[in-house]
Amino acid sequence: MKKLLAATGMALVLGVSSMGLALAETFQREGWVSMETKHAFADLNKKLTAAIKANKMGRVNTASASGGAKKRGVTIPGNRVVGVYNNVFAVRMLESNKAAGMEAPIIFYLTENVDGTTALSYKKPSFVFAPYYADSTPDLEVMAEELDVIFAKIAADAAAD
Fold this sequence. Notes:
Blueprint: H1 2-21, H2 23-26, E1 32-36, H3 41-54, E2 58-63, H4 65-71, E3 79-85, H5 87-96, E4 106-112, E5 118-123, H6 125-129, H7 139-159
Antiparallel strand pairs: 1-5, 2-3, 3-4, 4-5
């Protein structure tokens, strides 16, 4: 059993590592923005936090598969999701469509590449909220487009050299 678990763990580590090689292709999905950065994982995480604050948004929550794995003695490339929002937008969203509240906060996704650089990805807020437009007030779409600009600025600020 230990050999099976070790082999499975190695396959997962190798699979995760090889995913880093195909990152640009893997994360090119409808509604997503993905960018490679020159930053190490920890550095990009700090830069993202600063960019969120500079753009008057809040870092609402975060989770890290690599952080959890490390606590179990397993090493995988850096991986973190960071939920970002602002209560001003939350109130507008809920006034327009309560069900859309399921989508907040919007997530940034940091993924460490095998070469030590880190990619930054997120779903455009207009893509995230689009399924709710038909039964919402027009402000939901306006708000999502405003958030598109803010999220693009946060990503650009975080990725900048």
